Batch of 4 targets.
Target 1
Amino acid sequence: MPTYAYILVSLALFFVGTAGVLLRRNALIVLMSVELQLAAGTLALLAFSRALGDQKGHVFAFFVMALAAAEAAVGLAIVVSVFRTRRTANLDDVNALKG
Amino acid sequence: MLSHLRTIPLLPLLGAAYLILVGRHHSRRAVHHIACMAVGAALVVSADAFFFGLPALVKEGGLTDVVGTWFASGDLRVDLALRMDALSGLMCLVVTLVGTLIHIYSTGYMAHDKDYARFFAYLNLFCGAMLLLVLGDNLPVMFIGWEGVGLCSYLLIGFWYGETANASAGKKAFITNRVGDLGFLIGMFLLFRAAGTLDIPALLDTARGGGAVLTATLWWGQPVAFWAALFLFFGAAGKSAQIPLYVWLPDAMAGPTPVSALIHAATMVTAGVYMVARLGAMYLLAPAALAIVAGVGALTALFAAVIALGQNDFKKILAYSTISQLGFMFVGVGTGNFAGGIFHLFTHAFFKAGLFLCAGSVMHALGGSGDITRMGGLAGKLPWTTWVFRVCWLAICGVPIFSGFFSKDAIVAGAFATEVFGPRLAWVSPTVGAGLLAAALGTAFYMSRLYYLVFTGECRADTRGHLHESPIEMVGPLVVFGLGAFLAGMAGLPPAVGGSRADLIGHWLAPAVGPPLEVSSGFEWRMMVASTVIALAGIGLARLFFGGGAREPARRFVAALPRLVAVVRSKFFVDEIYQWLVVRPLRGLSRGLFVVVDRILIDELLVGGWTFLVDTIGRFLRLVQVGDVQRYLAIFAMGLAALVYVMARPAAPSELKIRIEGRSAVVELGDREATSGKLDYGFDFDGDGREDRSGPSPNATWSYTRPGRYRLRIRVTDPQWSTARTIERTIDIR
Amino acid sequence: MNLATHTATLAETIVFAVLSAGVLLGGLLTITRRNPVSAVMALVLTFAALAGLFATLSAHFLAVLQVLVYAGAIMVLFVFVVMMVNHEETTPIARQGLITRAVGVLAAGTVFYRAAWLVARERAMPLLAASETPPVKDFGTVSAVGALLFSDFLFPFEAISLLLLVAIIGGVMLTRHFREDGSRGS
């Protein structure tokens, strides 16, 4: 399939992730939406990598994946820690930095 | 010639450093051994240099010791250099000798003080600084010593800082000295600007050679030398307690008595006289400055002597006496009679130190009180002290044979005989001479009053049962000073008495300060007779008034002139006048500045204003901080969209042509590449808000019906992106 | 640049359509499920389909990694946390600041719409039209990508391992339990 088809899918997936991040209340779902956005980025990297015949895109996709793993680990740890102290995983309850 | 002069100031300085750092862990014995050894060793080294090293080189400028370059900047290069010539050698010897004796005396006087080590550390520091002042080969090094002795003076006046009066006396001395130091600094700057050097020998060579750089007119028709000399003398007036800066010295008596003897009688206060003598050649270039020095000296001598008449505190009388005697010395140097001034400095060091130590001994015996109306009849109780006091008393009164007679006479005779002022200022010479004679009469009177009230008649003290002579370590130095007060005059016999070679000091100092003043033999004899008569008259008058305690004539005198007595007793209200003229306006100004600048400007407006501003902005901006990450992100998305919209607007037309043909306007934008398909254009020619032409064509024409000025509005829209840009122009149709 | 185009076969089109549909459907389900467990399952679906898309792009190594790391490890992590923090939401979308967030979504939508539209319009340009695996030896295989990782990208590769180490330590520290008196508990 031509590259632009992949790019369109990537854009759509990124938008879905963005909407999830912006709208959902549950911190876990927000984290999952972030994973969606990262995955969309990976897809675009790989599609252009094929179009250009350059495997560096694969290397960067690999890095994105490692980054996503790190992000998930820290993000989930924060969720657990917040849940422990506040008995909630809802983002609208976590606004201690309100001015 | 290089030598090890540096050891002379270094020994006491090391002693001071050691005592300050670890002195309080040592026993009293160890402390005073270290302190006395340090000064004693300095005495030995300077005596060695003075008697064995110096004589051979005294014609060539003496011994020098350059430790290294202190600082160099541009044309200015200042070495840490010391020089011992005839003058500084003599001073060095006086300082170390008096210093050593007073160190020994202090071991007895301060024996019961708890801050023993601190006292001796300060004394050592003082000796080091004084020696640096004396030996310094250039003005900045001299200034280190100058400031150092000022610091020590402050520290020692306020030595018993537990009492506020002592601490304020120290501050008064320090601040008054600082006022004078400003003069010293300005004088130094003037000399550097004019002569380009601060080395004393170089300056003196310039001055002796007539020094065009120093005689050039500076301000108000007076030469550089005059102004430099005047400002330096102002510094000297601060250090040596002359009018108008003498007020600190009487208060300085708050310090321990050995300090008064060492610093405020024998050494530090003579630094001003020494400095003027050291720079004598420069002063000789400016007769007017010399006249001011002599005039101020004579005035101070007389004024202080009058004040001393009305004082009742032992040490205060001696303090005013010191001020008066310093006035004599300034008249000496101010009449070009440098050797005479230094000679009086030399003898004064002995008899005044002796007098102060006697005062210490008396107060020691009486348990600390210095009120002479509560003394009397001590002659039998304190035999050694009384004898030494008698010698010193006769010396300061100027009774023949005693040292003060010769030195004072050298100054008074010199004042009448000098020709240094030139024809226009010739009147100065007899005026100051007459002033000095009056001061001498006053001196003889108040010193005799002191003697009679303290040592003769009935004892009026409460502690008469416990009276005892001081211990040997106090009496020993006393006796040495007594001998000095008796014999020191032999070093400077006038030629009229001892022949042409008798004036040892005058000839010794000649290479440094010029030959001694020539006084004719007949005049010399007449002066000596007059001096003797004046001294004896003063003593006799005092005996009449106060012999064996205050007598009937004294009471009658006080009763007859109560106002005059009151004014003299209150020291002519000088302190009060200074309080009104200087302290109060300064305090008011400070308070005003504090309120306006500190309180209002800085605290309220700057500090308070900024916090208020930041606080207000913060109160407003905190509304933005909702603490909700998702909303932040949403706003970020909006910003991104806005950015994309701005970037995707149609570019400004690359060319815009408006042609006016008669009543018609033709607009040509030129077809440009659109980011998507075709752009849409709208043209409003008459500025009424409605588009007169619209569509995909970038060109349009419009005919106006009337001439006039029109607003032309062109809209470019990208239909795909829904972005638009508007261009406006104004055109004139004729 | 080595760009090659060829007309997609019907089979290719069908495979792509199915996988894309799986990705997008999975994504939509992920963000719409009330129950976090369902969301995780939908996410697994998304990642599986995405791995398929990677495979059609000749990214064999990344496809395998996608399954192993994402659909395997990270999803397990999510499931664990969901178990700890599990509660079904009554209101999945918070009312607070809803308008702001909705406008934000719309704004993001316009941006993505513009981008997609631009891609669609310029689909004929060579970069976007390329549709064939380039004639590079071992393209996308473990050995080829590994050779790059351990040669040109050795330093970033080591750096990313450091990042993972930091993440591990951070995760441990964050989830450590502290008693009220400040001492560490188990």
Target 2
Amino acid sequence: MATSDTVAAIATARGRAALAIVRASGPEAIVVASRCFEGQDLTTVPAHTLHVGLWHADDGTAVDQVVCAVYRAPRSYTGEDMVEVSCHGGDYVVARVLDSLVASGARLAAPGEFTQRAFLNGKLDLVQAEAVADLIHSSSARAHRASMDSLRGRYSEAIGSLRDTLLEVAALAELEIDFSDEDVEFADRGALASLLARTQSLLRAALDSFALGVLVKEGVRVVIAGRPNAGKSTLLNALVGEDRAIVSDTPGTTRDTVTADQEIDGLLFRFTDTAGLHDSRDLIEQEGVRRSREAVRRADLVLYVYDAAVGFQAVEQEFVRSIEVAPVLVVGNKVDLAPVTHGLVVSALAARQDHTELNDLRIALVRAVEKCAADPVRLVTSARHQGHLVRAADAVERSLEALRTGMPVDILTLDLRAALHELGCITGAVTTEEVLSAIFSKFCIGK
Amino acid sequence: MGARTLLITMSLEALGRMSCNPAIGGIGKGHIVREVDALGGIMGRASDAAGIQFRMLNRRKGPAVWGPRAQCDRVEYATAVREALESEERLYFRADVVTSVTTAQGRVTGVETQLGTTIQADAVILTSGTFMNGVVHVGAKTFGGGRMGERATRGLTGCLHRLGFQSGRLKTGTPPRVDGRSLDYSSLKEQTGDPNPTPFSFMSDQLPLCQVSCWITHTSPAVHDILRTGFDLSPMFAGRIQGRGPRYCPSIEDKIDRFASRDRHQLFLEPEGLRTTEVYVNGFSTSLPEDVQQRALRRIKGMEAVHMLRPGYAIEYDYFPPYQLQYSLATKRVPGLFFGGQINGTTGYEEAAAQGLMAGINAVRYLTREEPVVLSRAQGYIGVLVDDLIAKGTDEPYRMFTSRAEHRILLRQDNADLRLTALGRDLGLVCETRFARMQAKRDAIRATLESLKKVTVRPHEVNPYLESVNTRPLAKPTRLVRLVLRPEVSLKPLLKAIGQRCARQAPGMEDVALLVETDLKYAGYVRRQKEEAERMKRLESRCMPRAIDYAALTSLSSEAREKLSLVQPETLGQASRISGVSAADLSVLMVLVSRTSPHAASAVSA
């Protein structure tokens, strides 16, 4: 609960809107923002001024044209130095602006933290105090629920073994310090290093699997599936507005998977076109089918296209029902050729001439994603987890470095503790008592 | 501090008596001794006067975790303690047993004793050790006692119950003592003390007693088999002992039971003094029947003909869970009543000394109506100890470990005086000589650091040394302070190589070169930890309003409500360390604190 660091958060509601505001508060707020902002040097501008410029992500790419409002302590909402970045709405842009603030040195704010800072700096009157307490309570409860949700399933196992491994390293290091005159076997440097390396790879795996990356930062993976020649490639080309997939009338032309990115309403979609899903005797095509099924398994969303002229076949319906991993959007194509019985109505061919034709599909895609990530807190919570994991990974890297350079074990434990602290922010604090218990349960201590 | 004080003890001969191993210090514990000494306490000086084997543990680890330890002559230690006490002008003694605490209007008014005397005092400190309802166990034999051969005290627990306190039961144990004349030293492994012993006290210029060795041997499967024959008579396994014992100091029967796969356990045979042949069998704490102890000992290498002087035993005693205390070590219920030592659930001479010192300081401050003195976790191990007890409580005998101190890098045993002596002087605990020595040491470190910053070393001067410690030789002249940052490099040989000396010597037995080297090497880490400590201080400085009805704060989680109601934390910092209080709960508390004192809030976070 330190108030000396700089925090950042999205200030406006999530979803499609013309504009959104991301803000940073704390002693470094202006410096942090200025690192991402191309325009006037924000660190030298007067307080309460607005500045137009380009916002850059930490990799240097331009994200958006933005307006920065600069406030200086104590005349700001929180009473600290503050920058409010107004960018274009949509989750993708907003998330990237937030990301770059974090990459430049801010920390993601805890639920209610801006209000809390405002309060602690005497910016809110006493009447508001109770409301603030309740706000913190309810938003943290929501964040907690969301983080528990995101921890369930595939993350929980990874985080669990990560914590165990790190605890083991910490216990071994502390054992060496506090019980050096005991008759127990101490881990050699090699064993510690390999445990730490294992921790590091677990951290990376956990980071890789993070939901924020999947949906917002890295885009929504949409796999287009359907029988051969249902018009999948045509639909893809219509959606992304370029000829990415080879289109022909011969069934099974798309023998490999083809991908293309398209931003719709601020969300990044990564479409994967697949080979037709029927059992062909052609060897190359069989490989394509295998890849299609594989691609469907990794999808966030499946767009199932059927040929309206042929109808939504029973085998197709069965296939759609069998997809459990992701929501499925059923689309009837080639409506110009026949009436549609199921799902959405599109005509990919017509769409190529007239881009408004696919609007229903675009809206349906965004809605489907919003349903996946209905809870806006979930997005931020995952981002916060990611932040903790990144800092934990940094700390583990430093401890590996300490080990390599032969630093004494008490220095090593500084970074181990930092890593455990970060992990503790996700899983609940790792206490000294736990480390000691790990030692007492594994080693016979006591002269 | 000048308060007129009466020390009541069952036996004046028992002043400074070491009930367990006659050794002071160790890892973490040694830090406490140095801190007690820096504040003017007598433990360090008594240990130096009585020490017969000094060892600096962890010397091959970072200097922050070095742990001074001394094996002491039991008789000399007690003599040194009694001499020091008797030289205090306003300290009076009385041999008697306190049976109850008297109160009026809820405040302490004095104590009543077994001899029927009523003694009036506005402040009372209870340091009952293992004596309150103490029960000694040896095998199936059980009898009341505070230590082997000493009576237990009865009545005091009941009196405290009537005052509203809650008590619990803890257990500890001690190994047998044997006759050194019956040991075969030729088959034992010798463990010598340090060639250049480091004293505990910052005031010591020399260590008077001659140095002796300890001896190492091991148990064996045959020994374990004999011990197992006594398990069904063991008070531990038979369930006659209910109190919880320390996990880090298990009995030998516990060790072979819990770690059945280990075929041997290390034992240290430690002399109890220079003028006695009594030897302490460290590592063999037990409450098995006496004959089983004797037979098992005789199967140990080097102890085949051993003569046991007194058996090991377990002791159960009453303690008062420390959530009932304030940070001053005053009880929350009865103003003027203080607790220190094992009564609070701790174990160890050092932990007891720290609490005795702090309870003493705060009892005087209570009498003079001054604010209590509370050390922070960043100021010293004493601060860590008191905070752990009060914020977290304990349900097993608590002992210090360096891992308990999150600011470990800042809390070195060799800088305890730099951290605390000025405070000791402000409180009237530290004499001018001690303060002047601390200043001289501080100045010597500064002067040496300053002069070394200007020194540049040339390759030909230092390369032979650098190569000898397997580090890259220099290609061009380099600043000395940069070179010292290499983990392999030490300052002393470097200075020797370039023909330089430390700018100034420190008083006593302090080694300036080592202190300066540590300061140089650890500067970056120290800075980092200081920043952390600074952040924590903000929480510590925010007092919780008195008598909050936590149960009514529905914004808190139910676990936090329950724990906070029980502990009633004094500061936000303490609240943050109570298990079950989450970051969100803490935010709610912060708002609460700010609401009750808005001005203080903005001042702190500004």
Target 3
Amino acid sequence: MMTEARMRTVDYNLYYGSFRALRDVTINIPVNRITAIIGPSGCGKSSLLRSFNRMNELIPIVRTTGEVFLDGENIFNKDVVELRKKVGMVFQRPNPFPKSVYDNVAYGPRIHGIRDRTRLAEIVESSLKSAALWDEVKDDLGKSGLALSGGQQQRLCIARALAIEPEVVLMDEPASALDPVATLKIEELMEKLKQKYTIVIVTHNMQQAARVSDFTAFMLTDEQRSGNMIEFGQTTDIFTNPVDSRTEDYISGRFG
Amino acid sequence: MNRLRLRKLRQTGAFSLLWFTGAFSVLIMLFVVGYVIMKGFAHLTPDFFTTPPRGGLSGEGGISSTIIATIYLVICTLIVATPLGIGAGVFLVEYADHLKSRIIKNFVALARFGVETLAGVPSIIFGLFGYALFVTAMHFGFSILSAALAGSCLVIPVIIRTTEEALKAVPDSYRQASLAMGASRWETIRKVVLPSAVTGISTGLILSAGRIVSETAIFYVTLGGSYRTPTSIMSSGRTMALHVYYLAMETRAFDKAMATGAVLVVLIIIINLVINVISRRLSAKTGS
């Protein structure tokens, strides 16, 4: 049933100073599938997501133990630039740069050394097409990314992340700041993207997890307020036939 | 009921007082600016701007060479102070907070304290320092160079502070997005953070230019006082503000001092207006 794992963590712990935010988390992220991480606020979903591209390291007091692998290689032995080239990220709030649509998408490829104009133009076009934004912006790529609507901005951010051709795309509640129509567009987009990319999405919205994901991980805090992985499995199983009673309680809305 | 009226009365009293103090400070400003401009305006002929001072007790001539010296000094000072000030500001905001070493953290705290302190040091102290180091010890003499170096010490804290403010106003989400794409910290600063902060940083530069234009004491002891047009970076010179001082204290041409003062005041008003326009544009941008 399980497909091959693109990324996995083994007994992974994360500390903010002396506070243990994640406890012994072990999870496999299947290739070219959408994996949703759900759980109540403060259960460590985002901390776990940010572990996959080592964004937690931006916080000086963060310390980790255990291992995280990408394609079987320990990511802590990789150069962080190499890692983030392969593991892209989309944030909770759309955060386009105050630059043109074109420059937003071309930012990553330029950073990674692509200078050729025609090559850049190709990447920008294909990324915007993949993010289902091309038709809306193709007439004015010089327009500021900030001038787009919220939903368009988020798709621009997805295009920006795709432009560096990652293997994995991490999405941290990508639709929580958007209206239902824009949310639907993002969800449809994710469905298309999983043919090429492995997607991990953190979401508060259980219906969203049920709608879009193939696999679901349920996290919960223990008595020490550390995040634990309670259950991981196919989304249909998690939502219809959970093994752990706590998962069932959460799914059925008894807490959280 | 009585108690309520008393409270309302107190409020009226307090507000009246606040109104008075507010109006008074505005009046003082209007009076000073108005007085200088009215007194000086009569002497503002085209000749006044195009002829150099001729020296002497009667203070003949115009202010052309002092305008040139002022511009020359502002440019030289900013050439020295801009990279140092912006560099230090970037270091403090973008790098220092992410360092883990305790020793370097203490060093950074000391540097921050230094910047705060320098911003409050009277300009004549920078002048004395400049006189001792640049004029005397390094043999630069009374020159644009000495004055620009001393002036840099004066404005670097200003530039550091405004740079810090401008960088802090850049949303952290920009940095995160850039870093998450595999950009290094430096690439993020150069390609995302600095371009977003450029309006704020330029406010600091204009503020510094205004400071150089209006300071006297520091340049009295580093620039000398020659009223000839400076021909090189080693020339002595006289800024407009210094010229006002010389005219007022060493000649009988008090009216000319007022005229020069009027030009200065107008210049400072223009500089402040430019800053206002820029910061309004800045807040409009970050507000959206």
Target 4
Amino acid sequence: MGVNVRIPTPLRSLTQGQAEVSVGGKSIREIVDNLEKAYPGIKERICDEQGNLRRFVNLYLNDEDVRFLKDLQTEVRDGDGLSIVPAIAGG
Amino acid sequence: MGYVKGLRCRECGREYPKEPINICEFCFGPLEVTYQYDEIRKVLSREVIASRPPNMWRYAELMPLDNGPTVGFDVGFTPLVRAHNLGKALGVSELYLKNDAVSHPTLSFKDRVVAVAVSKAREFGFDTVACASTGNLANAVAASAASAGMNSYIFIPSDLEQGKVIGTQVFGTHLVGVLGSYDDVNRLCTEIADRYRWAFVNINIRPFYAEGSKTFGYEIVEQMGWRVPKHIVVPMAGGSLITKIRKSFKEFQEIGLIEPESCGTRFYGAQAAGCSPIVTAVKNGTDLFKPVKPNTIAKSLAIGNPADGFYAIQAIKQSGGWAEEVTDDEIVEGIKLLAETEGVFTETAGGVTVGVTKKLIEQGRIPGDESIVISITGNGLKTQEALIGKVKEHQVIDSKLSSFEALLLEKGAEVW
């Protein structure tokens, strides 16, 4: 059991094509770090050099934008769903 | 023909070929079209532009098409109105309205971006166009797809104004209402765009689509006699328009159509108080904005997570401008003020822009003796719900002259 992370198309080359992967951790930051251990190279795509979420990356925990929660500090539980969604358009 | 070099990531600078892609594979930053300005400079002069028909394609060299447009030939060149009456009401001496409330064919500035997007979609060989929209884009895409003979899928929040819904359906599109806000619609569309090979004008076609907004700015410069205004107030939803108007002024400078020193325009962003993430960031002096959950009658501006928010903040700051917000009541007042002084009926977004302009002048942020342009981007007939109960009830009489004269007496008017 862990958190189900939905991987957007541009990152699937790092997850061997998988659209969804299961990762353990207690917070989103831990999930990101554990993603990096399992799929090296993925963290620098999601986070900048300071380790903060990149400006144009949105994370949704169970459909809620994590910026409305506690950002990377947001706690997670087994069975939660985390979606990585590239920033989007307007109009 | 065509002067596009390719696409470049605005964040990390990685280069990409001309393809229907919108984000950098590496950092997810948005991609932007790059041009061969040295070549454009050789062929595009004020005289060449002035000799062409009055539509947005008079600036075709600065549009991201390889071949000419194949749809939306008559879009653009809307009036720049010298607003004497509104100027007097606001206490300023040189005020203009750039009036896309009368844009052909669907009465908003979205006709510009869609003319580019659908032409580009055809160049790429798509047979279906699609979009996520707060309404105006829905109207424009549906109309353009109909005239291009293309299939279309349009996704909107389920609570939009009737004018925007019927004004989309009439074109025979596949219109899908989604429960939730625009941001929910957008997120869904990002996933759909991932799976279906459609031309989502504001997703995979976005770098090209967004360039159409520049024509709003080119026209202002040409209509002001080849000069830029000192101040311009622009409504903000996703934040793209304000950045593209700024880009348009800079490009005219780059290719030598206007003097470099004339480019000191200050950009002011306008949002509704019920959805003002960009304004809040500008006021707090931060580079990043916090997404919000929108709650405003200005539905066309109700984007809580603006994709170009960061760049809009930069454009405002770098230009020395500012940002302000108005309440729903102030939006209605703004709509009525513009209508009663200039005879222009704008939608709620225009009420936001007029209300914010008034506020900025009252605050002394915009001086009274310099040129000001207010960007009117949509038509009031599409958002009539906002004015129900807010305009006077009209009087009904039977068809007798005596009844009319009784009414005149009631009004205290002279009876002949």
